[in-house]
Amino acid sequence: MNTSLITVIITAYNRKEFLEDAIKSAINQTLPRKYYEIIVVKNFFDEKIDNIISKNNIKSIFCDSPNQGEHLAAALKEANGNILSFLDDDDMFTKDKLEIVHSTFQREDIVFHRNRRTFVNEKNKIIGKDRPYPPFEAKGSDPISLRKLINRGMGVNSSTMSIRRRALDAIDVDRFRRMGLAVDSLYFVAALLQGGILVYDPRPLTLFRVHGSQSFVNTGSIDAYARRRCDSAKKFVSSYLELMKIVGGTPYEVAVKPLLVRSKVVSAVFCPSESKPTMREIAYLLRRQNMYLDRPQDFFMILGLAVACVFPLLRGLAIRVEYELARASRRK
Question: S-S: 93 plus which of 25, 53, 238, 268, CB 3.0-4.6 Å?
C-alpha cells in the first residue's frame, strides 16, 4: 500500500446520466495524477463512459449488488492508496479538492476530513451552499467535541469525505458488506473508533447535485411516495442496525442511534406492517434530534411522525403533510 497515495472511489448503481461529470471532475485535478488513483464501481456498461475510463487509466469494477457496502468492499480489494476519497456518481469535486486532501493528510494524526458543499442543479448551475462553520478539528473522545462534530454534519454525504484506510481496515469487511445504505455514517463511525483527529473544512470542495431522481415526490401520487419512503426507511433501519453492531456500547453510538430510531419512526408510519419504536426510543430521539437538524421545522416534522407512531389514526394525516411539504420544497 502506498502511504502517500489517494484512492478516489466513485460508485454508481442504475444511474449513468451524471457519471461522466463525476469522473471528469476527479481527472481534472490540480494535484498531479501520480499522487492519486481512481476506481469506478458500477453495475452497467456504457460505451462513452467506459472509453473515458479506459483512456484515463482508471480501474473499473462491475458490481451488481444494490448494497453500497458491497461496492465499497469491491473497491477496497483493488485500492492501493492509504487515503480514500469518495464520490457519488451524481456529485463532483472542485479542481483543488484532492490537492487540499493530500496536504491535510500529511499530518499523521488526522484520520478524517470532511468539507463543505456547493449545491448545483442538473445543469451545473449553483443554487446554494451548506451553512458555513469555522474550521474545526477534534478527536471526538469527549461529549462536547463529539456533539460539535455531529452538528457540523461530519457523517453526511460521502462525496465530502476522505478517510485513512486503516480506519476501515479495522472493521470486519463482512459487516459493512451488509450496509445497503448509510455508508457515509460508516465512514464517520470508523474514523471515531480509530481515535485520530477529525477535521471539518469550511471550503466548499464538493459540488452536490440536486436533481429529480433524488426526490420521492417525483414518483407522482401520494401512494407511490409512501411506498418509496417505506422501502427507503426499511433499508436505513437495516443499515443502522448493522452500524450499531460496530459502534454499540461505545460513546460513539450517539452518532448512529438517533438515526436508527428516526428511521424506525419513518418506517412505522409509512410501512404499517413494521414494528413501532418503543416510547423510550422515541423520547431518546426527541432529546437527541437537535444534534442533527438545522431548522426548527425539521424537528416538528419528526415530532409529527413520532406522534403518528403512537396514534396510528394520525398516520394518513402525517403522510399527507410530509408529502405536501416535500412537494413545496421541491418547487422552491
Answer: 25
The structural domain count of the chain equals 2
Q: At what angle do helices 279-288 and 257-270 cross, to 10 degrees?
A: 120
Query: Model confidence at 299, in pLDDT bands (50, 70, 90)?
Result: confident
Geometric angle at alpha carbon 77, from 174 and 87, rounded to 5°: 90
157 and 28, same domain (yes or no): yes
Last residue of a domain, one of 161, 196, 212: 212
Q: For strand 2-12 and strand 81-88, is the pairing parallel, antiparallel, or unpaired? A: parallel
3 state DSSP class of 164: strand
Residue 297: count of CB within 10 angstroms of its CB: 10
Query: Residue 293 gets which letter from DSSP?
Result: -
Nearest-angstrom CA–CA distance, 297 and 155: 21
pLDDT one-digit tens code per residue, 308-327: 888 888 888 888 888 887 77
Predicted TM-score of the model (pTM): 0.91
Calpha distance 81→36 (Å, rounded):
7
Q: pLDDT of 194-226, one tens digit each?
A: 999 999 999 999 999 988 665 544 557 888 888
Residue at a domain's end among 212, 227, 255: 212
* CA–CA distance, 118 with 295 (Å, rounded to integer): 19
pLDDT digits (tens, 9 = 90+) for 226-249: 889 999 999 999 999 999 999 988
User: Residue 296: is its pLDDT beyond 60?
Assistant: no
Rounded mean pLDDT, 14-34: 95
Distance CA 261, CA 240 (A): 9
Helices 279-288 and 296-310 cross at an angle (nearest 10°) of: 180
Domain that holds residue 189: 2-212
- Which grid coordinates belong to 310? 403512537
